[in-house]
Amino acid sequence: MMPKALMIIRIAWRSIWRSKRRTLISIFSIVIGTGLPTFTVCLGWGFYNGLIDDVARLMAGHVTYEHVEYRNSPSIDLWVDDIQAINSALNNNDEVLSTKQMVLLQGVAHTAKGAVGVSLMGIEPSKEISVSFLPDSIVSGEYLSQGDGRRAIIGNKLAERLNIKVGKKFVFTSNDINGELVEDLFRVKGIFKTGSSAFDSYVVQSDINFAREVVGLNSNATSQLGIIVKNPDNHDKILERWQNELASNDGVFLSWRQIMPDIATYIYMDRGSLVIIMIMLVILVQFTMFSTILMSVLERKREFASLLAIGTKHVELNLQIFFETLIFGLIACPIGSFLGVGALKWVEGYDISKLIEANPEDMSIGGFTMDPIITPFFSAPLILQISIIIFLLVLILGIVPMFLVSRISIVDELRA
Predict the structure, then answer these.
(1) Could you report the per-residue pLDDT of 313-354, keeping only the tens digit for each?
(2) 113 and 195: one domain?
(3) In the prediction, which pLDDT does 1 show?
């Protein structure tokens, strides 16, 4: 004899296909309710991760090591030393992809055209080539090489303001570590264009060794040590360990959120808005599912009353409705996830600037230009989490119909 539970499942399966139109509407609503959040969330998370990674690689990494007071008053006299030992230890860490030393100077660039306030970044060219997108943004001349000395690269807008081209010279004036005024001559080796108006009109890069000479720093000292980690989502967990094991008395490890608060705030607010919109959309879609399940029960009240009259228990009818809802979820949620991922694969690599016809400068956040190329975040745990949430919501929708079945009056329904 067939087990009772298996028999109820077979009855539930046959019941949902008695009205194919209603069943297809229910499945379609769940597919949309699963696929749309999967598409939107993975698309948004991909944008956020891309923005974080680009800015981290361009600037001071996912984690930054600097002087404990540097955030309050960025100045060349607030440097960290013993940097070579710390750098070596981090590069031997399995969680670290790369590190980059930087000497940051604030000063003025002079030419015959005039003077402009700039930020000079002394960098390791070999490291920048491997981790940053800036070397690929050169529009004139070449990027820096190790040992370039007085050679520097500047943004295209800064080149316009100073009226200089590749091969021309400019004088950079700043303060050294003792607070004394220093000047040095630089020659433009290359001009870059990132699309960020603030970055292209303000930043100068030169070889770190020459930047150290200008301000009087030794090879074991630097303004910042940027750390590119393999898994940015887990970098917060290692901050405390590095602080205890590697940091000196005046050094501190900081997250990119503390270094770039504007970017962090934007992502937090935008991600929260996206989640709220998705919740509202899922609720609206689920109402369609709820109405079809409820209508299915209301149309079969006489049928349920007949079953109760011949001895069927209320709990068995409730199980039938539960299994009907369960079947809807088991069919539709995987299809929705599959279609969501398929749509993401379809739009992957598309340049959204062509769609909205926007200039790169109009697509900047916190002074940094976002990448217009769509790069979704494909994460099996995230996609599975969305599918499970929608599946549980579908099961919850069956509670009200089950309650209505338990209140059916056999006499009233059969008399009608």
Answers:
(1) 767 777 777 888 888 888 888 999 999 999 989 988 776 766
(2) yes
(3) 41
As a whole number of angstroms, the distance between CA 129 and CA 198 comes to 22
Domain of 339, in residue numbers: 4-55+264-415
Let me know whether 113 and 151 are in one domain. yes
Report the chain's mean pLDDT, rounded to a whole number.
81
Same domain, 64 and 194: yes
pLDDT at 143: 92
- Give Cα 217 distance to the centre of its chain: 36
Q: Which of 203, 236, 259 is the last residue of a domain?
A: 259
% of the chain surpassing 90 pLDDT: 6
- pLDDT number for residue 409: 60
- Same structural domain for residues 228 and 140? yes
Confidence label for 410 from pLDDT (cuts 50, 70 and 90): low
3-state SS, one letter per residue, for the chain: CCCHHHHHHHHHHHHHCCCHHHHHHHHHHHHHHHHHHHHHHHHHHHHHHHHHHHHHHHCCECEEEEECCCCCCCCCCCCECCHHHHHHHHHCCCCEEEEEEEEEEEEEEEECCEEEEEEEEEECHHHHHHHCCHHHHEEEECCCCCCCCCEEEEEHHHHHHHCCCCCCEEEEEEECCCCCEEEEEEEEEEEECCCCHHHHCCEEEEEHHHHHHHHCCCCCCECEEEEEECCHHHHHHHHHHHHHHCCCCCEEEEEHHHHCHHHHHHHHHHHHHHHHHHHHHHHHHHHHHHHHHHHHHHHCHHHHHHHHHCCCCHHHHHHHHHHHHHHHHHHHHHHHHHHHHHHHHHHCCCEHHHHHCCCHHHHEECCEECCCECCCCCCHHHHHHHHHHHHHHHHHHCHHHHHHHHCCCHHHHHHC
pLDDT at 42 over 70: yes
Indicate whether 135 and 151 sit together in one domain: yes
Say whether both 187 and 299 belong to one domain: no
Residues 281 and 382 in one domain: yes
Q: What is the pLDDT of residue 115?
A: 87
Answer yes or no: do 88 and 214 share one domain: yes
